[in-house]
Design goal:
- Helix 1 packs antiparallel against helix 2, helix 2 runs antiparallel to helix 3 and helix 3 runs antiparallel to helix 5.
- The protein is globular.
- It has a two-stranded antiparallel sheet with strand order 1-2.
- The mean pLDDT is about 80.
- The chain has seven helices and two strands; from the N terminus they run αββαααααα.
- The chain starts with a helix and ends in a 10-residue tail after the last helix.
Length: about 200
């Protein structure tokens, strides 16, 4: 459960730093707890679950897809660090690939986060189904509320991709993510789906 909680923390919160790269002429952000680490932890935890509900299998499929996307995102972030240490044709090919990747990922950044919200919606459904197995109505209702909220946030992030906001759109998801992390931590003591992981 502790590893799954750490995986969710990696996915839900961005712990990183930004700096201005004069070589790139732009702000560079490096994530200290990259999303791919969180998705990798969750994918490994999913494999250890004996009987998976339909929603657990669905959220596992989304986690695998997001693992691939988040690895590509991380590659685009470390491209600048990689360029500083390696010179030659291989680094130029990598720089070209990572540069094109960065261009594409920067444009769809909020859409990727919207898919993260969809993943969290399905993860909420999976946890709801686990609560239903032990007939714990309180946790079932709580995770149903999270399901609905995450779907609303997913739709909002799709809209935010095309609308300029005077603030970072990620800030509106922080209270929801904090609440989910706390509920998950408390509820998994009762629900034994990720017990011992």
């Amino acid at each position: 459960m502790a590893l799954v909680f750490l995986g969710l923390i990696c996915i839900l919160f961005n712990f990183g730093f930004s700096y201005y790269s004069s070589a790139e002429g732009a702000m560079i952000t490096l994530d200290l707890l990259p999303d791919f680490a969180g998705y990798l932890i969750l994918c490994l935890a999913y494999e250890k679950i004996d009987k998976k509900s339909r929603w657990m299998r669905e959220s596992q499929s989304i986690a695998v897809g997001m693992l691939v996307v988040s690895v590509l995102t991380f590659i685009s972030q470390i491209r600048i660090v990689f360029d500083a240490f390696v010179d030659g044709i291989d680094s130029k090919v990598f720089a070209l690939f990572a540069g094109l990747l960065t261009l594409g990922l920067n444009y769809v950044d909020l859409l990727i986060y919207a898919v993260t919200m969809v993943f969290m919606a399905f993860f909420s459904l999976a946890m709801m189904s686990e609560a239903d197995k032990i007939r714990h109505r309180g946790w079932s209702v709580t995770y149903t509320v999270f399901f609905v909220l995450y779907l609303i946030f997913a739709a909002a992030f799709v809209v935010f991709q095309f609308v300029q906001l005077p603030f970072s759109a990620y800030f509106i998801a922080i209270p929801l993510n904090v609440a989910f992390a706390l509920v998950f931590y408390v509820s998994t003591k009762k629900l034994d789906v990720f017990d011992g992981r």
